[in-house]
Amino acid sequence: MPYKDPSKRKEQAKRWKRAHPEYQKHQKEYMKQYRQLHKENINKIIKKCTEKKNRWVKNLLGNKCGHRQYSIIQILEFHHINARNGNKDLLIAHLSRKKILPLIQNQEILLLCPNCHREKHLGFW
Question: So where are the chain's domains?
């Protein structure tokens, strides 16, 4: 019986999952096989979505290098101000648009050409 109340619906789903553990095993195995069979298409979709999000962020940042105003957008890179070494949580591809907007507003992401990006990391400016 469906529940209109979201909390009751969630609780019912938890009870059902506990009562049917074999379904979860089946679902997990099915998804694993599906990903193996459709790996190429999944990767194409992910790449397309990532490129679209990158274009959107570059457009918000003005499509120019933040230091020298270089404007060939295909080679511009993102510099994360507060990124720790190897922190992949700040990769644009891993963030939702809701999480990206505050980073842009707080100027925690810069758009730089490759030369300026290297200079920034080496501490020249």
Answer: 38-122
